Amino acid sequence: MTTNEVTGRRGRGPTDRARRDRIAEAAIAVVAERGVEGLTHRAVAAAAGVPLGSTTYHFATLDELLVVALCTAAEANIERMRDWARSLPPGADLPAALADLVMLGLTEERPQTVVGYELYVAALHRPYLRPASTAWDDALAEIFASRTDPATGRLLAAAFCGLELQLLLRDPPPDRDEIEATFRHAIPG
Questions:
Q1: What residues have CB less than 8 Å from 58, skipping those under 6 apart?
Q2: What domains are defined for the chain?
Q3: Any residues with CB less than 8 A from the CB of 55 and at least 6 apart, and which?
């Protein structure tokens, strides 16, 4: 709402231009905490600190919230991966670097990793989510291929995703050396 200078009354209008982005980020947080099945307009509104009507105004359906959550999470993950790739020196030990990256996804970046896989799996039954999921797959393969070759890049993307997903479920936590050994087998010497 905006205040009319003549009447002093508040009228309709954008009061918080970043509200839609906050709602999208809150949707990601809800998925990280409760899973896709826990995503509701009410939960997102509470997490974003906005009235319930704001979530339904910006995202009329839960499907719209899922799409924006997946696209936002995928874009952030892709950018994080590109930053990682740029930070590696040209002669870096790729299997060791990939093992460190998996461990980072299982520890410090665990919430982002969980969200990524929650939404990725949701795309199995929601075709409208698939473009963002395949964009993530393609970006990973491209990033890994820049250090190897296209076929190995695609193999490493699949191995990376598979290992992360499996290891998110493992208790006790995985052994980093075991992860590195897996990547050493996958990368031609």
A1: 19, 20, 23
A2: 2-186 (1.10.357.10)
A3: 23, 41, 44, 45, 48, 65
Identify each DSSP E strand in the chain by its residue range. Answer: 2-3, 10-11
User: Tokens at residue 137, please?
Assistant: 């797959």
CB neighbour list of residue 169: distance below 8 Å, 6 or more residues apart: none
Tens-digit pLDDT profile for the chain (189 aa)? 444 444 444 434 455 668 998 999 999 999 889 988 999 999 999 999 999 999 999 999 998 988 888 888 888 888 999 999 999 998 899 999 999 999 999 999 998 888 888 888 888 998 988 888 888 899 999 999 999 999 999 999 999 999 999 999 988 877 899 999 999 998 877
Q: 108 by DSSP, 3-state: which? A: coil
Residue pair 133/72 in contact by the 8 Å Cβ criterion: no
Tell me phi and psi for residue 17, to 5 degrees: -65, -25
Q: Which residues pair with 11 in a beta bridge?
A: 2
Can you tell me the distance from the alpha carbon of 131 to that of 147, in angstroms, rounded to the nearest whole number? 25
Does the model's pTM come out above 0.90? no
